[in-house]
């Protein structure tokens, strides 16, 4: 498929952040009508490379060639004018603005001096429809769920008629169904001659759509080849530098003692009458389609959303509406929205790490050396790749932010931990570590609820799975009954004829 | 004597017409005196509130080693002890206009007559208006000084049967007075006269009356002798029959007397009260200073 | 701040939220009008309505510009003293030009030109310091506030700058006359408000301001020229301050150190009462207009009614301002 | 917006940023001190230094509290009139208590108690309206500003509230005396500043304030009691206003409608000059102290030198304030 000169090429790209070098001379080319996948561990430099190609960052050394001619983008606008567009790993949307306003930001359609709102609304609706996403273009972004935000982000890039489209982990927050839609769109773009740069930690996707694969490790290119015949195992090995054994550890056997009892919990407008129990040492999975209300249920349980019903931890009724009370009772929740709800991106690692469990570092005076030790431990325990301990959380790579968030949650030493989308944006090697970590927690007598949109993850980890659909608990599966098919059928309400929750 | 002296002058800043005039006269007096007496040095500080004025005085004592202080207290109460402290440090103190709350601290007191200011105006109203006539009053910024003037005014019209329809604060400000007067005009159909307590406010009041086209219906008495107003009185404007003086130049008198006391042996201590006078078309010429900014 | 409640926000049935958020200030305004009408029969008379609207126009014109600045995440504390300064410069130039141009339209036009240019220059200066030199807007405009206030006092030599008497007579109708009984300041205010509302909701400029205020990074990444845009908001505000001055000077024909004191706070308060978000990202011009009217009406009603003690006017004002915002609280929290 | 930095922020080499950001206000302060010393030999004398520090203490104590409010993403415009109101209430209570308690320590302590309670109550009221009723802080405190100012004018019947003469004599040393030549206001200010700095940097409270200001959602999800914390910042500020008043009353022995005018702007300006971010998320108390000193020194120096015209003082002040912030600009932009 590759033909003639590359549309966009980087030669000997080196990038430093202050004294720290994160790219060590990477060569990289994108051809028209080709999907080029860039894979690598968390912190390998994928996002950095993509931002350089997209004109958001300038290389410290090395040069960019556009259609064979050297270019230097002084700002991202020039790159966009040259037809280079990028979907960021972290959302790049203004929360207070509506879907349509975000999609057309910076290139509004007008009639005379005025905006042509009707045209933009229609165009936005069309773009979203192509992605099978049916949100009202007038909705504000802040009222959208994380997956829908991602769809808006994608729609925005699609709407801009790119020659080069750079996609940084677009599917990290999507479920299978939405991923399929996206991949179909990518196929279409490829046929129209768009050059696509794609990255994801879901290697099956790479297998499905990539024409070429380049592997980065620690900022150096270790491999670049045709995707033809490159198996997932080979990819994983090339990335991690070692062979991966079985992804999922053995499942722990739960004790009999019930540690969490949720009774008739209703989150107005989102979740109706959910009841379930969790036992000591159990890993309980929560599955469901996007919008099933899993997140809302969990947030209701820990007191982040107003709710009715009763939650008992170790037999004691939990004070409603108080995250602090939940934490003191040993129950913590790890959010799926890392950027808006999880981390303070403008603060350093320590301040993020200890925020949830700050009282463990002194009620009057914060014990800074202890905090420092905690950071060191977190960095080793969770394999957070930091180049400088004083760096801001926002400068960590996406996957490493997720690890920091995990470390922050675990620092509260919970008895029960609810993890919403535990491995979002995490590379395959680390994923394995996290799975082992979850299993070890359960083995140590803690209890874990895993909410995940990746079915293999739920199936591989949980000894029991609760399936949610449209705001209520649609079924429960244990042992060998836990199969993808069974989960999906319950999630879509095929075997369940209870009435829908009215919002 | 060829000994040199420093005189500190602390006055409120030029936030409205009268204070602007006062600032002007203070600066003019200082320039004049510096030219005449090379051995005199002046420190002029203007303050927007009592606290800042105390700061200024402290600075003059601590860093400029003043030999005399001329102060127009922003407010009487808060300035009393700080000025007392200055006096106790052996510095000559001249107080202008607003007396301190404890008498006898100052060596020299030069003042306008606030009670007289209200009284003279009130007397004119009582003389001119009939029983049952209606007036409205625009007061200044709520302060003791404003209270004194208004009380004296009220006392002077007491028993005359004049009906005070309303009093509101115009804050010695043209715009505020304009707005308040507009609203008075909407509210009352029959107004015979306005006491505006200050010429800045009188300007705003006149404009509001002109806009409502009710020029013939009422006249206005301001106060403090702003040059535009005095000019109009000189020209016999029927809407501005009289004015009441409250000369901003009193500060110049105070500074000059203080300087004189330092450089010569002339005894200058005591009280100088510059009474408020009624300005009429006949005597207006003698109150007209076209060069003053006020 | 802004992302406070989205989680708690129950399925924001957009209609319902809409209503309270939108109606809040309008309800407050209606309540005030009803109160005024019940207190005094002249309240709704032509004269009083004209007075209130015309005197709202200065703050109003400025507040429209302030809406853009705040929507784009900025603030401007200097507008009041800028107005005083511009008025001072305008009056001095007109006085100086009388011998050259005589009394007439040319003189007035020249004065207007000077006012607009002075406003523009002042706005540009603020804009450059904030957007290019990147100093905190609060500090730049606080400094500018002191500087202009002080300059105008200095120009007036502590007193008042008065426009040449005949020139005033000629210029005066610009405040007091109009067409079909609607006076010029009201017409200009209405035009500015309408254009502002259009600009905010129907032009890329308004949208970009909201985007800039919501998330500067996103705006930058969306190829919005962030620095220029931010500067533009201050320039527009400066121009509108010039325009407000053009309406202000013919009223009393003078400027002094006390002209325009606290206009900045009043303008900002009007913007926020109107529903614009102080931290930026969302603004509405019509709300600002309602806010300005609410503030003017409070004063008007306090003058028309006879309250216990005029000393308490400020307290009543404060309470009403807070209440006016309580009404839209529900809606506010979803922002 | 908290998420500004993540993508673009070109690795702010932390060391370099640190230095300018930190040194900015300190450099400005040193420059001012050098200027003052060169203008007048008494400038660094004991008397002047004591005067300047003591008079900075009111704004200083308040500004320390303001640092927490702003760091947590709030604002308080009411502190100046709150101080006037608290002073008024304190003076009236002390006058009323003279017959009961006589002139003595008990009376002074009672007065102090009243001031602290009044400050606390006022802060609590602001806090409840902002954190619980969820009204925009700008509006609540703007309203409160009008209300307290008006109440104190009313209590004073338009004039001045004065402390009983003997009581004043007895209370006076609290401002003018001290230990080892350091006067009480300086000691109290220093203590408040040190405690504030410790609280900001070394306690969960300070950490939580910064987290709340940086991103309220994240704070909520991290088990921070957001409403209570926000309320606490206003309560602390109210208490500190009470404390400042305790130092202020013995100085002038009176309160009136013009007491504490513009203190709010001065306090906010000091906080920002000191390097705290106006939109919240980062604050430093020592910076605020430097900011307060810079502002006091400007006034002091203007009195030392005889400037062209006192009308221009405001302009010079404005320019220096802007310059003081320009110095830390480099650092600022990376926050
Ligand atoms: N602004 C920055 N300042 C300092 N270091 C940075 C900055 N941005 C990225 N880095 C560092 O550069 C390295 C590469 O980050 P990058 O985001 O490119 O990784 P990635 O391959 O995209 O990882 P992930 O799979 O987790 O998204 C990381 O170590 C990261 O900490
Ligand atoms: N912040 C929000 N504001 C308004 N609506 C939201 C918000 N977050 C989610 N929703 C809506 O709530 C519903 C359920 O949320 P959500 O999609 O998070 O459920 P979920 O079961 O946790 O699925 P997932 O976690 O896979 O996204 C969806 O319809 C979504 O659009
Ligand atoms: Mg990445
Ligand atoms: Mg979810």
UniProtKB/TrEMBL annotation, chain A:
Ranges for domain ABC transporter: 8-243, 253-495
One Pfam family per UniProt: ABC_tran
PANTHER family: CARBOHYDRATE TRANSPORT ATP-BINDING PROTEIN MG119-RELATED, D-ALLOSE IMPORT ATP-BINDING PROTEIN ALSA-RELATED
Domain of life: Bacteria
InterPro entries named among the record's database cross-references: AAA+_ATPase, ABC_carbohydrate_import_ATPase, ABC_transporter-like_ATP-bd, ABC_transporter-like_CS, P-loop_NTPase
Gene Ontology cellular-component annotations: plasma membrane
PROSITE patterns for this protein: ABC_TRANSPORTER_1, ABC_TRANSPORTER_2
Gene3D superfamilies for this protein: P-loop containing nucleotide triphosphate hydrolases
Localization, UniProt: Cell membrane
Gene Ontology molecular functions: ATP binding; ATP hydrolysis activity
Primary location class: membrane
Claim: Zinc is one of the keywords in the record: no
Membrane topology: Peripheral membrane protein
Keywords in alphabetical order: ATP-binding, Cell membrane, Membrane, Nucleotide-binding, Repeat, Sugar transport, Translocase, Transport
Record-linked SUPFAM superfamilies: P-loop containing nucleoside triphosphate hydrolases
Protein name in the entry: Sugar ABC transporter ATP-binding protein
Organism: Pseudooceanicola sediminis
From TrEMBL, chains C, D:
InterPro entries referenced in this protein's UniProt entry, alphabetically: ABC_transp_permease
Any one GO cellular component localisation term in the record: plasma membrane
Top-rank lineage group of the source organism: Bacteria
GO-annotated molecular function: transmembrane transporter activity
Localisation per UniProt entry: Cell membrane
Transmembrane portions of the chain: 20-40, 52-70, 77-97, 103-125, 137-156, 176-198, 231-249, 261-278, 285-302, 308-327
Membrane topology: Multi-pass membrane protein
Keywords for the protein's UniProt record, in alphabetical order: Cell membrane, Membrane, Transmembrane, Transmembrane helix
A Pfam short name: BPD_transp_2
Protein name as it appears in the record: ABC transporter permease
């Amino acid at each position: 498929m590759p033909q003639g000169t590359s549309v966009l090429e980087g030669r000997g790209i080196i990038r430093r952040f202050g004294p720290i070098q994160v790219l060590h001379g990477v060569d990289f080319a994108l051809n028209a009508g080709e999907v080029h996948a860039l894979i690598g561990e968390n912190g390998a430099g994928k996002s950095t490379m993509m931002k350089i190609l997209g004109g958001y960052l300038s290389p410290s050394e090395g040069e960019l060639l556009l259609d064979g001619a050297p270019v230097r983008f002084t700002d991202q606008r020039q790159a966009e004018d040259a037809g280079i567009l990028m979907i960021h790993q972290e959302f790049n949307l203004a929360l207070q603005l509506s879907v349509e306003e975000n999609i057309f930001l910076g290139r509004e359609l007008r009639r005379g001096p005025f905006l042509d709102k009707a045209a933009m609304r229609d165009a936005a609706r069309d773009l979203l429809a192509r992605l099978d996403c049916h949100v009202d273009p007038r909705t504000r972004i802040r009222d959208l769920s994380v997956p829908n935000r991602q769809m808006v982000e994608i729609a925005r890039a699609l709407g801009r008629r790119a020659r080069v489209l750079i996609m940084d982990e677009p599917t990290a927050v999507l479920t299978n169904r939405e991923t399929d839609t996206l991949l179909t769109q990518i196929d279409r773009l490829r046929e129209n001659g768009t050059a696509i740069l794609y990255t994801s930690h879901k290697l099956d996707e790479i297998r499905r759509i990539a024409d070429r694969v380049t592997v980065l490790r620690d900022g150096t290119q270790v491999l670049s080849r045709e995707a033809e015949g490159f198996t997932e195992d080979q990819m994983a090995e090339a990335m991690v530098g070692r062979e991966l054994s079985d992804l999922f550890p053995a499942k722990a056997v739960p004790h009999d003692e019930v540690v969490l009892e949720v009774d008739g919990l209703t989150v107005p407008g989102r979740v109706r009458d959910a009841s379930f129990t969790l036992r000591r040492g159990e890993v309980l999975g929560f599955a469901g389609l996007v919008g099933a209300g899993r997140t809302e249920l969990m947030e209701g349980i820990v007191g982040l959303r107003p709710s009715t019903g009763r939650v008992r931890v170790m037999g004691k009724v939990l004070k409603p509406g108080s995250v602090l009370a939940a934490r003191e009772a040993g129950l913590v929740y790890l959010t799926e929205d890392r950027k808006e709800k999880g981390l303070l991106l403008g603060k350093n690692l320590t301040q993020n790490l200890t925020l949830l469990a700050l009282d463990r570092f002194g009620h009057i005076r914060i014990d800074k050396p202890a905090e420092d030790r905690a950071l060191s431990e977190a960095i080793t325990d969770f394999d957070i790749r930091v180049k400088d301990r004083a760096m801001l959380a926002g400068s960590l790579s996406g996957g490493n932010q997720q690890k920091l968030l995990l470390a922050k949650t675990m620092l509260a030493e919970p008895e029960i931990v609810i993890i919403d989308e535990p491995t979002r944006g995490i590379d395959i090697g680390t994923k394995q570590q996290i799975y082992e970590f979850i299993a070890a927690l359960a083995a140590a007598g803690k209890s874990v609820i895993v909410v995940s949109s990746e079915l293999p993850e739920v199936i591989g980890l949980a000894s029991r799975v609760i399936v949610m659909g449209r705001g209520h608990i649609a079924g429960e599966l244990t042992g060998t009954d836990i199969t993808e098919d069974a989960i999906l059928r319950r999630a879509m309400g095929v075997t369940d004829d209870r009435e829908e929750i009215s919002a | 004597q060829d000994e040199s002296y420093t005189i500190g002058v602390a006055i409120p800043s030029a936030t409205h017409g009268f204070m602007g005039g006062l600032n002007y006269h203070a600066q003019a007096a200082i320039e004049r005196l510096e030219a005449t007496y090379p051995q005199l040095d002046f420190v002029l500080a203007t303050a927007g509130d009592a606290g800042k004025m105390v700061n200024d005085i402290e600075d003059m004592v601590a860093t400029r080693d003043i030999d005399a202080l001329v102060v127009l207290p922003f407010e009487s109460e808060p300035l009393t002890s700080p000025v007392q402290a200055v006096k106790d440090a052996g510095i000559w103190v001249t107080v202008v206009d607003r007396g301190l709350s404890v008498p006898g601290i100052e060596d020299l007191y030069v003042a306008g007559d606030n009670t007289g200011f209200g009284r003279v105006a009130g007397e004119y109203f009582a003389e001119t208006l009939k029983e049952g006539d209606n007036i409205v009053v625009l007061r200044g910024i709520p302060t003791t000084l404003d209270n004194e003037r208004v009380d004296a005014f009220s006392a002077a019209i007491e028993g005359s049967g004049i009906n005070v329809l309303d009093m509101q604060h115009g804050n010695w400000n043209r715009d505020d007075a304009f707005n308040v007067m507009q609203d008075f005009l909407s509210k009352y159909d029959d107004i015979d006269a306005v006491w505006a307590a200050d010429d800045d406010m009188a300007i705003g009041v006149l404009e509001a009356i002109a806009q409502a086209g009710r020029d013939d219906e009422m006249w206005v008495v301001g106060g403090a002798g702003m040059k535009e107003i005095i000019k109009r009185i000189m020209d016999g404007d029927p809407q501005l029959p009289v004015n009441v003086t409250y000369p901003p130049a009193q500060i110049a008198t105070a500074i000059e007397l203080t300087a004189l006391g330092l450089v010569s042996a002339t005894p200058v201590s005591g009280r100088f009260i510059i009474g408020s006078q009624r300005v009429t078309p006949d005597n207006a010429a003698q109150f007209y200073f076209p060069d003053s900014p006020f | 701040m802004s992302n406070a409640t989205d989680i708690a926000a129950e399925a924001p049935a957009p209609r319902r939220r809409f209503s309270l958020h939108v109606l809040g200030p309008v309800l407050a305004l209606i309540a005030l009008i009803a109160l005024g009408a019940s207190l005094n029969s002249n309240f709704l008379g032509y004269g009083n309505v004209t007075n209130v609207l015309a005197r709202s126009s200065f703050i109003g014109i400025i507040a429209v510009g302030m809406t853009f600045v705040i929507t784009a995440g900025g603030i401007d504390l200097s507008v009041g003293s800028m107005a005083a300064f511009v008025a001072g410069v305008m009056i001095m130039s007109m006085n100086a030009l009388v011998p050259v141009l005589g009394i007439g339209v040319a003189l007035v036009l020249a004065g207007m030109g000077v006012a607009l240019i002075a406003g523009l220059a002042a706005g540009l200066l603020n804009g450059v310091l904030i957007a290019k030199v990147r100093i905190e807007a609060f500090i730049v405009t606080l400094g500018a506030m002191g500087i202009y206030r002080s300059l105008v006092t200095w120009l007036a030599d502590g007193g008042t700058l008065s426009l040449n008497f005949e020139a005033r007579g000629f210029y005066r109708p610009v405040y007091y006359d109009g067409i079909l009984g609607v006076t010029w300041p009201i017409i200009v205010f209405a035009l500015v408000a309408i254009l502002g509302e259009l600009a905010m909701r129907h032009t890329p400029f308004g949208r970009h301001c909201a985007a800039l205020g919501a998330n500067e990074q996103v705006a930058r990444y969306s190829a919005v020229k962030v620095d220029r845009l931010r500067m533009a908001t201050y320039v527009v505000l400066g121009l509108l301050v010039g325009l407000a001055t053009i309406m202000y000077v013919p009223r009393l024909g003078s400027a002094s150190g006390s002209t325009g004191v606290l206009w900045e706070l009043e303008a900002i308060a009007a913007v926020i009462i109107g529903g614009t978000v102080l931290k930026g990202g969302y603004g509405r011009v019509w709300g600002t207009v309602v806010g300005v009217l609410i503030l003017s009406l409070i004063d008007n009603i306090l003058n028309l009614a006879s309250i216990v003690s005029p000393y308490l006017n400020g307290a009543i004002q404060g309470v009403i301002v807070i209440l006016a915002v309580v009404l839209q609280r529900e809606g506010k929290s979803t922002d």
